[in-house]
Design goal:
It contains 34 helices and six strands. The chain is mainly alpha-helical. The protein has nine domains: 38 residues; 51 residues, no CATH class; 37 residues; 48 residues; 45 residues; 39 residues; 40 residues; 56 residues, no CATH class; and more. The strands form two sheets. The protein has a four-stranded mixed beta sheet, with helices on both faces.
Length: 583
């Protein structure tokens, strides 16, 4: 649990600005963290003073000791006022670099002598690279490992291949493979190194070694045995290539399918390179009538379905029209079309079709008339209604039209538009200004308005960031506020403009807030009521703030006086360091 800051702790923080938040957390304020101290300093308006320039003594210490110790140790011992990143940047500017001995001292936290056997095992036995070993030990670089190898008198591995090793590889790689060679004949080489060298000389493992026997308990065996007829159908009838069949079954390679086709006694496909004249005649005569599937089964057994379709496309022979017989579903379709008034596409989906052309054709065959599409559910217009509409639509009122015609006003408007009748310009916007908008609208009642205003006020109290005054004032900065803003930016002072401050009764939005100081620019237009301003100032003073008011004439005529008043007040409150103390 976080504890409240006492007055003694705040005084210690103000007296020791020059030290910094990190050293305060270690020495004087041990119960507080670095982050907590910086947050409290920003609330109180305290700015920590850090020396920006490097002294000559510090530069000499860095030049003499950077090569041996490095940035981390220097920031802890000899250069306590400087961080690790500041030391590194200064060293880069001066062109200083670390020695290998210095790098070993920097990595004193990780003791590599304790892990000597593990590192040698990875380097010699497993053949790991230095970068890979560094990753295993959670190191960023491999240079300290290389320096320790010189300590332990470990020779580097032979990187170049000798002629004897290449001969052994060429003679035995096909039969033995990379793993056995690395264990027996080529112990100095890893498995990956042997495979890489074999790919350079284009040597491959024999196929007998690569293909393993699949036991009957293996799920791949069961998968292929259960789909025997399906694979044979794809291979012989549809004439799919072997890779496509492997993808359909769920395999990455096709050598297993070749193996099982031989086991099942399936012969190779009879590939005719050219089509004979007889085959072409059979295709032209029977393709429209039968189709590609039946031709491949009966008259053209040596051809696949895809070959027949491609050949028919070249000869520009039209495919057979698959007419679906819908006589069995006659009553169901008429009920959907006439009574339920489904669209044709929806009827096609209910039956299981993608298009609605066949439904149109069958409705004509059965003698079903087209539907009359009107606004009022398909009601037909009588001759008397059409006569009345032609006579009274131009000047007749809306109420009389609805009484004499049994249609909706939208339907009346559509019918008039079809007949080419227009309404007089007196009744313009009649459809939009309905009786609901005039009389029955609840927002016109005073009770409803009171309820909505109460709810709006409650919501604004809970969400003060979204208040309308603040949103409007963001884009409406006055000239007085701009001139004060320039003064604050000139002296690099962090401020908050028009941010809310919570009081006992309500929320207040001061012009400028710097810590516990509030600055107000009093213009003649907005600051006439003195009672309201006095009330606001009391509420803010109760919260621990101090006020500064500047009138419009003072800001416009004597801005230097305004600048001096602000800086004096800040020095009294100790809001910043020694930079502005001599103003």
């Amino acid at each position: 649990m976080t504890t409240k800051w006492t007055k003694e702790e705040v005084e210690i923080l103000r007296d020791n600005k020059d030290i910094g938040s990190l050293e305060l957390s270690k020495t004087l304020l041990k119960n507080r963290t670095k982050v907590a101290i910086t947050k409290k300093a920003t609330k109180c308006g305290i700015i920590f003073y850090i020396p920006s320039k490097w002294t000559k003594e510090e530069v000499e210490i860095l030049k003499n000791n950077y090569k041996k110790f490095g940035a981390i140790e220097l920031s802890k011992t000899l250069l306590k006022n400087r961080t690790r990143m500041a030391v590194l940047r200064k060293a880069d500017n001066l062109g200083l670099k670390l020695d290998k001995e210095g790098i070993i001292k920097v990595h004193t936290r990780i003791r590599l002598d304790d892990k000597k056997e593990y590192i040698i095992h990875l380097y010699v036995d497993k053949g790991y690279s230095l970068k890979k070993i560094a990753k295993c030990l959670n190191l960023k670089r491999h240079l300290p490992i290389l320096a320790h190898f010189k300590k332990w008198d470990i020779k580097e591995r032979p990187f170049k291949w000798i002629e004897e090793e290449i001969k052994i590889l060429k003679e035995n790689y096909k039969e033995m493979g990379s793993l056995k060679l690395s264990e027996t004949l080529l112990k100095n080489r890893s498995k990956t190194a042997i495979m890489a060298r074999a790919s350079i000389y284009k040597i491959k493992v024999s196929r007998k070694k690569k293909i393993k026997k699949i036991s009957k308990k293996n799920p791949i065996y069961l998968k292929l045995e259960n789909r025997k007829n399906y694979i044979i159908d794809l291979y012989l009838n549809k004439r799919y290539p072997l890779r496509k069949i492997a993808n359909c079954v769920g395999l990455n390679q096709c050598y297993l399918i070749v193996k099982y086709l031989k086991k099942w006694g399936v012969k190779k496909r009879f590939n005719l390179g050219k089509w004979t004249e007889k085959d072409e005649k059979i295709l032209k005569e029977n393709y429209k009538r039968i189709g590609a599937v039946e031709l491949s089964k009966t008259l053209l057994k040596n051809k696949g379905i895809i070959e027949i379709r491609n050949k028919a496309y070249k000869f520009k022979v039209a495919p057979p029209r698959n007419i679906i017989k819908l006589d069995n579903k006659k009553d169901y379709i008429i009920n959907l079309y006439v009574n339920k008034r489904y669209p044709l596409l929806k009827i096609a989906k209910c039956i299981g079709l993608n298009q609605y052309d066949s439904i149109k054709r069958y409705l004509k065959k059965w003698g079903v008339k087209k539907r009359l599409i009107n606004a009022q559910g398909g009601k037909e217009w009588t001759k008397e209604e059409i006569k009345y509409l032609k006579e009274n639509y131009y000047l007749g009122e809306k109420v009389d039209l609805l009484k004499n015609i049994n249609h909706n006003f939208v339907g009346i408007m559509h019918k008039a538009h079809r007949l080419g009748i227009k309404r007089s310009p007196k009744f313009k916007g009649e459809f939009n200004k309905t009786s609901f908008n005039k009389i029955d609208n609840p927002s016109s009642r005073p009770e409803a308005r009171l309820k909505s205003s109460k709810r709006m006020k409650e919501w604004l109290r809970k969400n003060p960031d979204k208040m309308l005054n603040r949103l409007l004032k963001r884009n409406c900065i006055t000239s007085l506020e701009k001139s004060v803003m320039r003064i604050l930016k000139k002296h690099n002072l962090s401020y908050k403009y028009n941010m809310y401050v919570k009081t006992k009764d309500s929320y207040r939005f001061p012009d400028f807030r710097i810590g516990k100081l509030i600055i107000e620019c009093d213009g003649k237009r907005f600051h006439n009521d003195k009672e309201k301003e006095v009330k606001r100032d009391r509420e803010l003073i109760e919260q621990g703030f101090e006020m500064l008011h500047f009138s419009e004439d003072k800001i416009n005529k004597n801005i230097l006086c305004v600048e001096g008043c602000i800086l004096k007040k800040l020095n009294q409150l100790q809001m910043f360091g020694n930079k502005l103390s001599d103003y």
